[in-house]
Structures are given as structure tokens and as C-alpha cells.
Amino acid sequence: MENVKVVIWGFGAMGSGMAKMLLKKKGVEIVGVCDRNEARIGKSMYEVLGMDRENRPEVIINPNIDEVLTEGSCDVCLCATDSFTKAAFPRLKQALEKKVNVISTAEEMAYPKAQNPELAAELDRIAKENGVSILGTGINPGLMMDLLVVCLTGCMVDVEHIEAKRVNSLSPFGPAVMEEQGVGITVEEFDKGVSEGTLAGHVGFHESVGMIADAIGWKVDKFEQQMKPIVTTIDRKSPYGFAAAGNVAGVNMTGQGWVDGEVKIDMIHPQQIEPEMEGTETGDYIVIQGTPPINMANRPEVEGGLGTIAMCVNMIPHVINANPGLKTMLDLPVPRAIMGDMRELIQR
Amino acid sequence: MENVKVVIWGFGAMGSGMAKMLLKKKGVEIVGVCDRNEARIGKSMYEVLGMDRENRPEVIINPNIDEVLTEGSCDVCLCATDSFTKAAFPRLKQALEKKVNVISTAEEMAYPKAQNPELAAELDRIAKENGVSILGTGINPGLMMDLLVVCLTGCMVDVEHIEAKRVNSLSPFGPAVMEEQGVGITVEEFDKGVSEGTLAGHVGFHESVGMIADAIGWKVDKFEQQMKPIVTTIDRKSPYGFAAAGNVAGVNMTGQGWVDGEVKIDMIHPQQIEPEMEGTETGDYIVIQGTPPINMANRPEVEGGLGTIAMCVNMIPHVINANPGLKTMLDLPVPRAIMGDMRELIQR
């Protein structure tokens, strides 16, 4: 049986991380990489990864997706280029029209109907027309603050209130994340960034709340979210970030889903560098009031970068096996690590 | 749209618990109950449950399954009669041959191919022949020590070792469970019960280990399990159990799945009355070594009875929607609570 063939579109931290993971797995190969970063164009993927090519065919990083992604060139395209459905849409459409399955890292693509129902319907139509499927996933949205919540409600007779909290460290991340999350800036600069929409914060609460509510049959009649600075009282330093005492060490995102006039879903997601320096213990927490109640903690938190890389790669067989159309994590079997030969998981 | 129609076969703690849960849900109705317990035969299901019938049609408990379960009588049969696949098989076969979908509480049915591959293949064949599907599920096996483990590996690049531990209290359970688990007997009686096979202990490690290993692509070359008494140092009393100091308060089950010559899956499941009296904190724990690692705790544990009831009822839409055949929790979308109208979840 032939290897599962993968094209990676976008070779930043996520795309290159997926490549490293794939190169350690059996029954799968990377047949093409598309990336527009000048520093990478024309180079060997193996050189960029700092990995030995061994006896594998060469893969040269190409900025032209039309040359990388052609009909029949691969089974799945991992698209790690965007955070927002609207921005990702033209690329996802192009990949689907080459009749390849697609997995997107775009946070909003984890549940695109939450904010872009028309684009979601259009992606579903295009995927079906071309006989392939498309999924958005990652660690969050994708697992820790939504799918895992849904899975745990599976053992509940009745659900009254859901709180999902993810307390994580930004210390492993690079300069781009430091800037997006406002690490090191003053509170005034932070407030200006929030009002002008230049600070990203966490993207995905709307999607996670929509996914949970639709899964268990709650109708969300209002969604709100807030973005507040985490102000440090001491100097904090991480490999790529520094926040002086009195300045911003990260972002505290909170969100609420209202059902029947009350908050039934609470999302809490503080992200900062060096949380331990002020006594914050990182972790993923799910507290569900109902019958029977759930009180889950995973400490420390699943590292965001690795988690997203793993989720996207591990969902490859499920996406290839799925019926054509736009899929969410709610539609497919539970995610799982791939420790065997990926070919054995494909229903040909 | 018509209500989802359910027949319940076996009206003990599990069957009657499912009935109570179903009666609080929208878009679903119980159309028949089969049970052979003399005390319940001929009585109204509502009377036995101690619930008001309101304007619902009467349901009389009938010992004759041929009268309760006929072709077209229901969408799904919840079969809560057995723990073992071999014992359940004739009943499951009979239900499938009436062309109704089946959900079984039998622990071994959570992954029947682990111990009864021929019966599993036979059930798959019969289900397909009759255009329906069959699933075994529950809280454990079914979720806490297997499916949840699998789900958490979904965010992992690499898995090295899995430990699933469920520390639970037997105090909510009745006299039958006290007897099966050896609560109150002496250590000598316990050892005799183990050697003669009269103590049930926990049924399901073989199934959970098989489910986890198959899901992530490990080949289990050896499975072992042990059953040891939990000896109390003080008198312990629960509503239906009593263990004097020096006697047995419960059972500690341990199991191991060997992969490539080493133990890669460890299962630990101590069950006892009044664990708190000797400082044991109940909970569900999953520790997975690998990249990134998982260190999950759910405290206290999900109550076994309620959890099994909820899992079976909540999987009804997934089982009705599934392609024909024998299914496991690995094949279907993640379980989820049903807080809305069940009819909206059925893909007609």
C-alpha cells in the first residue's frame, strides 16, 4: 500500500513542527511544502528543519502553491497559514478544488459556523463537490476548552453550568506571539491595542462556546468576551519576552455563553510569560455542574504549540476517511495518537 | 417528526436508571420494558420507577421479549442484562434480528474483540445483515479508563507509557455489588473466591487495554490482571455493606498491557466502601508519559452507576446514525450530554 501523502502549506512554527512530527511516523510522507518566507524559498525542507534527509526524496520549499498542490499530488493538505476563516478561505477553497482533503490550523476554522456561517456553508459545498473533506483543529480551540468538555458531558445525565479554564505559559513562544499578546507593553499601550484591535489575544472562544452548545443542545442567545492585561508586580523574563514590574506579562481572556437568559458557559484563559514567578500554577481545568458533576484538572497545561501540531497530524486518518464536506471535531471519531503505521488507519 | 422510540431490556439498577433519565428528555419515549424479575412483571413501569405517568401511554413490564421487541417497534433497544459477551450474545442477536439498533451495558461488549473475536465478528455480520448497529458502552469500560485516555493522546506527538487509575467508592451500591466485590468477607474467603472465580471484581481491563492499544496503534503481546483484597484497619459501614477491621472493604484490581516486551499500559482500579475513612481520595486519574505529557485528575470520581446510565442514553443518537455493524466508542463521534430535543440529533 502506498504511503499517505501530505502537502504542508505554511512553514512557520506550526507547519515545520508538523513536518518534524510526520518524519518520525510510519506509512506517511511529505510530498510538498509551500511557503512564501524569503528565507526558506528554494531551500530543502530537511535543511530548514535541521534533519537528515536519509534516503527520502528531496522536498524543495516552493512559494507557488499551484506547483506544489496539484490534483492527485497528495491525500491531505495541512494548511497552517491563518487564524481567521475569512483570511484562510481563498487558500482552503483552492486546496479543496484540487480534490485533496484539508486540515486547517486557523482557530476560527475549528467551528467556522460560529462567526462565518456563509463561508462554512460554502466550504461544505466545495468540499462535497470535490469529494473531499475539510477540518479545522488544534489544541484550543479543538480539544482542551471544547471537545474535551463535550466528551466529559457524555457521562452526565444533566448539565447545569460549564467552566473551562486554561492557564498557560507563553514562555516557550517566540517574538511574534510576544507582540500579539502584548507582552512587555504598558497598560496604556495594552488598552489602546484592545480598542484599536491590534492585540490578538486568544482567538477561539466564540468557536469553543458554539461547539459545546451545539453538541449538547443548548441554544446560545448571547456571546461576550473580555480581554484584560495581566500586570506583573515583578520583572519577568522569558527567552523571547520581558515584562518590567508594572507592565503587561500577558492577556487574560474571559468569555461567556448565555443560554435562556443566564451564563451557562464560562471560558477563562489567562496567557502570560513566567506565570510561576507570581505563584500561578498552569493547567487545563474543566468544572461542570450537573449530575454527576465533573471536576477535571490537567497540570501542567498541554503545551499549545506541540498540542496543535499533534492534533492536526493525528486527525489526518479521520479526515481522509470522513464523508465529503466540512467537518468539525464533533463529527469525527475521537482524536488519538498515531504510534503505528498510518496506512493501517486508512479505509481505502 | 416522531419521537425516538426506546425499548429497555433488563430493569435492574441500570435499566430503571436509564428509564428515569429518558423520561426527563425531550423527543424520546420508552415504548416497552422487558424484565423477568417476578416483583416487577405485570406492573406499570411508572409505578416501579415511582414516577408520575402524566399523559404518557402506559408501559407494562413484560417478561416476554418477543412481545416487547418486534420489528418496527422501536429505534433502539437498551440491553442491560449481562456483563459478559458470551452471556449477552443470544439476547443481542435476537434484538438485532428484529432490525433494531442495540446498546449493551455488558462490560465485555465495550470491546468484544478483546476476548471474543468470533462473537464480535458474528454480531457485526448480523447487525449489517439487518441494517442496524450495536454498541457496548458505560462509564468503565467505555469512558474513564479508555476512551478518555485515547482522546487525551490526540494532542500527543509521541506516547511512551499510559497509566489509568480509577479510585472509587462502592458505598452507593446495593447488596449485589457488595457480594460480587467481596465486601465484608475475610481475607481467606476472598482468596478462595478469587481462586474459584466466584468474585467478579472489575470486568473490563482486557477490553480497555485492547481499545487503547488498537486506537493508538500498539500491538499488545501480553495482558495480565490481578485481584487483591483491600483490607480495612478499622470498621467501615456503608448503606448496604459492612467490613470489620481486618476484613475486606473492597477489591484492588490491577492490569497490564505489554507492548514490545514491556508494560506500556497500567490499569489500577481499587473499589471499596467508605474509602475516605482511611484517607483514600476518590478520583479518576490519567497519567501519560510522552510528548507533551498528560497528568489528568477528576476528583471525586464520576459515580459509576450514573455514569453508565448517562453514557448508554447519550450514545443513542450516535448509534442510530451509525452505519450498520458492530461499533465501539472508537468508531463513533465523541459522547455528549443531550440537553435538547433528541429528534434533532437523528440524521433521518
TrEMBL record, chains A, B:
MF GO annotations: 4-hydroxy-tetrahydrodipicolinate reductase
Gene Ontology biological-process entries: lysine biosynthetic process via diaminopimelate
Keywords for this protein: NADP, Oxidoreductase
Pfam families: DAP_DH_C, DapB_N
Superkingdom of the source species: Bacteria
Record keyword Oxidoreductase present: yes
Keyword NADP: yes
Domain Dihydrodipicolinate reductase N-terminal: 4-104
Domain 2,4-diaminopentanoate dehydrogenase C-terminal: 144-347
InterPro entries per record: DAP_DH_C (IPR045760), DapB_N (IPR000846), NAD(P)-bd_dom_sf (IPR036291)
NCBIfam families registered for this protein in UniProt: ornith_Ord (NF040740)
Name assigned to this protein: NADP-binding protein
UniProt source species: Alkaliphilus serpentinus
Organism ancestry: Bacteria, Bacillati, Bacillota, Clostridia, Peptostreptococcales
